[in-house]
Amino acid sequence: MTAASPVAASHAALDETELRLLDFERAWADRTGNREAAIRAEFGVSSARYYQMLYALIDSPLAVRDDPILVRRLQRLRDARRRARAHTFPSDSTARPDSQDDTE
Fold first, then answer.
1. Exposed e or buried b for every residue in 24-47, given b needs 16+ CB within 10 A?
2. Nearest Cα to Cα of residue 40 among 23, 24, 63
3. 54 with 74: CB under 8 angstroms?
4. Cβ atoms 62, 56 nearer than 8 A
5. SS (HEC) of the chain
6. How many Cβ atoms sit within 10 Å of the Cβ of residue 49?
7. pLDDT tens digits for 51-102?
């Protein structure tokens, strides 16, 4: 009986789509062209759905175990985008509490 390789064992918990997501992100640095078109061609989903799937995946301990450097880089990029959006679009809590609607 042969022992499973460490690579095969780490991939056993991730499904095929999750592995493809990580492979796509790993290889994207070498690609050129329209990312949204590549996402649609590779996965058959919109870029919004792709990022939903990717962001759920990179929060998984299984993904971190599979490729910790890639996953942590993707987490940092995601978190930076969230901070930038929060800074660009502040919440309504900054509105003056005494402001009233002029439709009265």
1. bbeeeeeeeeeeeebbeeebeeee
2. 24
3. yes
4. no
5. CCCCCHHHHHHCCCCHHHHHHHHHHHHHCCCCCCHHHHHHHHHCCCHHHHHHHHHHHHCCHHHHHHCHHHHHHHHHHHHHHHHHHHHHCCCHHHCCCCCCCCCC
6. 13
7. 999 999 999 999 999 999 999 999 999 999 999 988 776 665 555 555 444 4
Cα 71–Cα 56–Cα 31 angle in degrees, nearest 5: 50
With tokens 């992100």, the residue in question is: 25
The HSE-up count of residue 9 (CA atoms within 13 Å, CB side) is 5
CA 55, CA 38: separation in Å to the nearest integer? 18
